[in-house]
Amino acid sequence: MFTTILGGIFVLTAVYALAATSGLFAERSGTINLAINGGMIMGAAGYMLLSYMLVQQMGGMRWWIPIVSIANSILFSVAITTLLAIGTINFRGDHIIVGTAINILAPIISTVILVIVSHGQQLIPTLKYSMITTFPTYSKITAWEIQMIIFFIVAFIILALYLLMRKTVFGLRLRAAGENPHALAAAGVSVFKIRHLAMLISGTLSGLAGGIVVSGFLKFSAYGSSVYGMGFVALAILILGQWRMPWLILGALAFSVVYILTYSYAQKLVENQWLIYVVPYVTILISLPMLSATSNAPKAAGQPYINTGR
Amino acid sequence: MNILKKIKTFILTPNYSFRNVLFALILGFGIAYATLLAMYGTADANFLVQHLFKQDFLDMHTSTLLIRKITILAMAGLAVAFGMKAGILNIGVSGQMTAGGIVGYIIIQYSGWMRLEKNNNWVLAIMFFVVVGTSMVVALLTGILKSYLKVNEVISTIMINWIIVYIAKRFTTNESKDAIEMGKGAKGFDTTRFVHGNDWLITGICIGVSILFIIIAWFYLSQTKFGFKIIATGMNKDAAHYAGYNSKLLTLNAFVISGALAGVAGYLFFFLSDNSIPAFEVPLAEGFTGIAVALVAMLNPWLIIPSSILFGLLEGPIGSIDAAGFPPSVIQVFSGVITYFVAISSIFLYLRPFLFIKDSWARYALNHKGGAK
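^ Those are the sequences you sent over. The predicted structure of the assembly is below.
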């Protein structure tokens, strides 16, 4: 029981940290990525699609299938995030509206893919294809240890991204694209290129988050083209973390502790368990106004960069 | 001749947003059709497209259901459009709809009105005010968060959507001892329980209500001082503030009215349509389709009517497509792709087909017939 809770906290922190960092990279470069949820859905769909097909092809589960499938989930998420990037950066669409449209589009694409591949099933059981059930059959490793390993890999990735953002030239340019793109352009750097690269990173991260959700998290017994709004929660964590990476990770940790504890408590209840699920969302809703007074949002986030002014 | 000239200007000048939306619709439809072609081949894709436009109009019952669905989408779209006029994106339409409907159900459950006999129209009349009032309260909460506590409305509405989904689920799952009776069989609320009349009467009420609210929204936005202030706030909040308008109060006002319109949509959805109660795994899809409806209508209350008819047709036949042996979600490809292209319809500013042909012809002529070198 204890290890289940601990493993859940590990993997959920990883998911929220990845998703919130995805939003961070987008907003720091000046694009509001409302489509984190869509990217996660596509990532989850990509994972389910490839693992389902490979299992059909190989006639059974192999140890490498989850790893290859995670790569596919990144591919899917990058594809849909690129739609957002093209719509907002190149064609100057309203960031919020295009993001919402992607969030509408992603579950539909995902459902269609799943329905076609799995011959009419709209819900695919995830536990058959997930890491936490596959790897223990090949070694002595247990489910919560896998979740811990996922957590540390993600922590390593996020540390690398923090260094990329804070200590490299690219990171400086990325932050400049979100604060003052015209200054960046005057320095001779292509704002479009930086913003597209940032969206590429953003899509990769949200796809990774979506893949981990379906492959490492016990709550997901079946995938039906929904990640229960986790991308939006990550966006709220991003705002709570004031667009600062350390605070953001802390927010992800705090939120996943709240979530897992309420979830495991709710499992014991029969009637009111659905009311307990409300607690994490209410927590966010109450804590948002407290921090909104000191908003450190990137100044140029959500504003299109127009090249003709110079 | 004059009309021809007008049409020519319309296609050539990219300043009309209607032109851009039209191109977006055509391109979206084309890409969705191409997707179906790639998935199923020519014959089945054509069958699906034909199915969209001749769906069971002969059957009285299904056509009334389709009309009711269109009125729901129209009201949801009107709610979103009203918000957008004031510069806010009300994603919470689905949550506001659900809140109103569930509170109405709970009141019916606990007041014992379930056991009333037929011909009690007054229950439905009371429910109208209950549903709209609840939705307004939910929208008021979001509005206060937006205008006085500076919380971005996109985040807060999404959080409220999920909160309402779980509360609604608690009152409709069979696990609950005091679950709503109508919820138990996963069967929809029986509208004939209270209304003395047939399908067409209920459909007529739906159409009447939605047209009434479209007129009200149009009148409020374009004929009154408050409407002007709201539009001014939406166009430029700072300018409205300098002009002496209380932009915070106006934003709150717009949110509450948007919530009221969402409440009308919820009333139509939960009390006047034959839908089964949704499973409440995710927020209601109608609220999100409302965004697409509002965008296609270019936020004009009157254009909501054709726009909602379009999306009603695109999303209507989910049930009958299932019977034809296709997965029901396939048909949603159309509305999804179209929504994306309408959202980025400003890209069609760059689409100038005639200019492109003219330029290419000029280049061709230059290269092949000599001319200025």
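Confidence is low (pLDDT under 50) at residues 183-188 of chain B. Chain B touches chain A through 50 residues (CB under 8 Å).

Shout if you want it in another format.
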